[in-house]
Amino acid sequence: MGITVQNITGSTAMVIWPKMASCADTFYSVMYHPNWNSMLSSYSRKSFQKEERVPTTRSSFVVENLTPLTTYIVCVTCQSADPSSDQCRVFNTLERDPASATNTKKELALGIWLTSSVLLLIIAAILLYGCLHILCRRRRERLQGRNGTSEQDHGKSWTKSTAQTSDELGRQSQLMQDTEEKHPGGIQLATIIENPSACKEPVMPTSKNQERVLMTGQRSAI
């Protein structure tokens, strides 16, 4: 068939064959397999790793995804049958292409960068959540402490005011008792002056008041 393999690289190779007018099928079968050893391998279709179907309008095919520095065998038939030795060619792939190596490095670097970015975002989110949780807890504790202090201050002030009121009431009652003991009539007059409605009956003057009234009347008569 005059099969040739051209443009061999570390991962691709172009297979070219002449068109055959006697091919009854509508496609060519391109089969290839790595690590070929003619002494141990046969030309059976089952022994080939991959098989591609190419329309009969074409007479070339680019084999891709090959392994660098590897021996391959490629066969082309015009029917789905086992190929013969004159329908096959053996070739060796080259080292890895500089461009493909650069692309691989770029892809690896991009993958590492993306992974690192995702990890950093996760760590930042965890730290932010922890900080917010701590701040909220401290704020809650401060509010609870302020509320407890205000309640204690309110209780102390209420107790103090109650004690002061009790002391004042005791002093007033003691003062009233002392005044009543010293001036029995004076306390009644003071009570009537402060609260006129507390006593409906007229207050009778004491003996000293009567003497003063009589003395005033005698002076007026003289």
From TrEMBL:
Methyltransferase keyword on record: no
- Determine the domain of life of the protein's source: Eukaryota
Listed transmembrane segments = 110-136
Query: Which SUPFAM superfamilies does this chain map to?
Result: Fibronectin type III (SSF49265)
Q: Specify residue ranges for compositional bias: Polar residues.
A: 158-177
Q: Which residues form the Fibronectin type-III domain?
A: 1-96
Instruction: Note the PANTHER family from the entry.
Output: FIBRONECTIN TYPE III DOMAIN-CONTAINING PROTEIN 9 (PTHR37361), FIBRONECTIN TYPE-III DOMAIN-CONTAINING PROTEIN (PTHR37361:SF4)
Q: What protein name applies here?
A: FNDC9 protein
Origin species: Smutsornis africanus (Double-banded courser)
Which gene does this sequence derive from? Answer: Fndc9_0
